[in-house]
Amino acid sequence: MAEIKVYFDREGNTLTVWFGNPEEEHVCEETGEGIVLMKDKKGKVIGFEKLNFMEEKTELVKVTFETVAV
Q1: Are 36 and 48 in contact (CB under 8 A)?
Q2: Nearest 5°: phi and psi at 13?
Q3: If we measure between CA atoms, which residue out of 2, 1, 5, 50 comes closest to residue 23?
Q4: Is 56 helix (H, G, I), strand (E, B) or coil?
Q5: What is the model's pLDDT at position 70?
């Protein structure tokens, strides 16, 4: 099973999710609506970041994962 890393920066209000090795990041591409894709040298998406993640300041951040067959 692949490892997924999730980081929430409360001060910067960003949520960053890595499903590849963060050290392989080569380029970032902003897609609009506050989403940034992180890609490796081959152009494969290895993570994403959601800017302005929470509109309201709350103490609890809930993350749910679901697996699907591909």
Answers
A1: yes
A2: 55, 45
A3: 5
A4: coil
A5: 64
Distances (CA, A) of 39 to 6, 9, 51: 16, 20, 17
Domain ranges within the chain, ordered by starting residue:
1-70
Q: What is the pTM (predicted TM-score) of this model?
A: 0.78
Amino acid at 26: H
Query: What radius of gyration, in Å, describes the C-alpha atoms of the chain?
Result: 13
**Tens-digit pLDDT string for the chain (70 aa):** 478 899 999 899 999 999 999 999 999 999 988 999 999 999 999 999 999 988 776 777 777 777 766 6
Q: What backbone torsions phi and psi does residue 22 show, to the nearest 5 degrees?
A: -60, -25
